[in-house]
Amino acid sequence: MTRTTERLAVTTPPTTDLDEATALRHQLADELAAAGHIRTPAVDRALRTVPRHAFAPERPLHAAYANEIIATRHSDDGTVISSISAPWLQADMLEAARIQPGHHALEIGSGGYNAALIAELAGPTGHVTTLDIDPAVTDRATRFLTQTGYGRIRVVTADAEHVPAEVVPDGGFDAIVVTVDTWDLPWIDALAEGGRLVAPLRLHGYHWAISFTKRDGALHSDEPLIVCGFVAMQGDGAWHRNRRTVPGTGVHLSWEDGPRCPSTNSPQPSPASRP
Questions:
Q1: d(Cα 76, Cα 214) in Å, to the nearest integer?
Q2: Are 90 and 120 in contact (CB under 8 A)?
Q3: How far apart are CA 155 and CA 232, in angstroms?
Q4: What is the helix, strand, coil percentage profile of the chain, to 5?
Q5: pTM, full prediction
Q6: pLDDT score, position 241
Q7: What is the tens place of the pLDDT at every residue in 229-249?
Q8: How far apart are CA 184 and CA 207, in angstroms?
Q9: Dihedral of CA 206/91/217/1: which sign?
Q10: Which residue did the predictor score with more confidence, 85 or 116?
Q11: Which of the residues are catalytic?
């Protein structure tokens, strides 16, 4: 089921100390620029503008502006299933996305804060859609985006493996930024020719943030890879571990890549017949 939520912008000032929040926000941006993660005035301005603490009200102010992830939702077993990414990685990925004023941009994996950064880059003539499979996540994103004045961002609840056709602009998105780990790229058709796709791909047990440009219908990578970490993709695009038990040994083998292994319940050769 797909649910789309669009609300008009209503700005509500955060209840925290604005002067302290502004100082911490500029301090974080200074650190990111000095480390080379911020490389353009547009990304610098976005990170100095969007109030990160407003998207993590459960955290103390100083923690909201720390250069690290903020977990915002856990599964029943304690696994983090939604978070605000580390600012250094957000800056790197936004720089790689090359979002310009007037662009149509899609974020896969919502939370609100990164979508607001993208909206700053796309400007008032741009259009931003943020999509997540979890309605609790999209409800939270909608609430905080509205409170911070970014209510024109379209928030969609859907499985990212099947982006609803009605949210894809004519000609495709100019930029797609994926903020959940993935092993596949099912969004090529939703990307405009010449558009940018930035995604954390699972390769040989690691997640690599890779940026692509679509040329002649194919994706071409043209920027350095970044080792990173993201919450797992849910839904039809989820990655499942290939795991096999060696009979009679208690040893378990896992394959990061390749086709799914046969079920462990399938017939196994006897120890005597194995080489």
A1: 39
A2: no
A3: 20
A4: 30, 30, 40
A5: 0.76
A6: 56
A7: 554 555 444 444 555 666 777
A8: 12
A9: positive
A10: 116
A11: 85
